[in-house]
Design a protein that fits this description.
The protein has helices at residues 3-27, 40-50, 63-68, 82-98, 113-123, 134-141, 149-157, 192-206, 210-229, 235-248, 251-257, and strands at 30-34, 53-55, 72-76, 102-105, 129-132, 160-163, 168-171, 176-179. The chain is α/β, with parallel strands linked by helices. It is globular and about 40 Å long.
């Protein structure tokens, strides 16, 4: 691709992504998160920094009403205990009844066959997006995300796959976006993937195009990661700096740094 064509391609995708991030701030969508115990606090703070409103309960008495009053749902399998599985099943039922978008984050399914089987079942229940890494995708699809495998899986599953790593790839089976933003420090802070999934849910709450919403979220967290790394002294300060970077992130900053095609 010629440099001029590459720049035009980047602008064409980055501009609607910036619009999505602006609308999250303007509308402050509520995201109900069924997430793991390690990630809860960080996830809540990332959503607040991005302009969304988090809730976290998994109480059987409350989960239905919390999901029904939310704008989107996150189901994260990081601490796969009986209480969270029960809450996830009920939450997905309510989301289907209410027509709410939800995101699946199949954390560490490559380490546990029962968890992988449950994740495969959840994919059949209509998540708008699945955010995962290479090892998790391989466990879910029984094939590495090489060549046409990723976009074929997305098309067959009728969902958007947001594959994160050194380069992020987003596909709905018809369209593919690649994002080259981010920083190595992101891999040294726990729950970075979890918060990326939560941000996907926030974007889905205000954007009906799940491919665009997922691309916008992963682009935003990657750009924020670069901004945070510029001020961080290591992984500890990076975890704080990324909250400030997300809070500061605006349209001009995202467009100036975006590396997306």
């Amino acid at each position: 691709m010629r440099e001029a064509d590459r720049l035009q391609s980047t602008i064409d995708i980055a501009t609607p992504c910036a619009d999505v991030i602006e609308r999250v701030r303007a509308r402050s969508p509520r995201v109900h998160c069924i997430t793991n115990a390690v990630a809860q606090n960080f996830t809540a703070n990332v959503l607040l920094a991005a302009g969304a409103r988090p809730s976290m309960t998994i109480s059987p008495e409350e989960i239905g009403s919390f999901v029904a009053s939310a704008d989107a749902l996150l189901v994260n399998l990081g601490t796969f205990d009986a209480a969270r599985r029960e809450a996830a099943d009920r939450a997905i039922e309510v989301a289907a009844e209410e027509g709410l978008p939800w995101v699946l984050d199949p954390v560490l399914i490559d380490r546990s066959q029962p968890r992988a089987a449950y994740a495969a079942d959840l994919v059949t229940r209509g998540p708008r997006a699945v955010r995962l890494n290479r090892a998790e995708f391989t466990a879910l699809a029984s094939a590495a995300p090489e060549g046409e495998t990723l976009w074929r899986y997305a098309g067959d599953a009728r969902t958007v796959i947001g594959l994160t790593g050194e380069t992020d790839v987003v596909s709905d089976g018809a369209r593919v976006a690649t994002i080259r933003n981010g920083h190595p420090l992101m891999a040294r802070v726990t729950a970075m993937g979890c918060v990326a999934s939560a941000l996907v849910a926030a974007c889905l709450a205000i954007e009906g195009d799940a491919w665009l919403a997922t691309t916008a979220a992963l682009l935003a967290i990657g750009v924020a990661g670069e901004g945070a790394a510029a001020h961080a002294r290591g992984p500890g300060s990076f975890a704080m700096e990324i909250l400030d970077a997300l809070d500061r992130l605006d349209r001009d900053g995202l467009l100036a740094r975006a590396k997306v095609q």
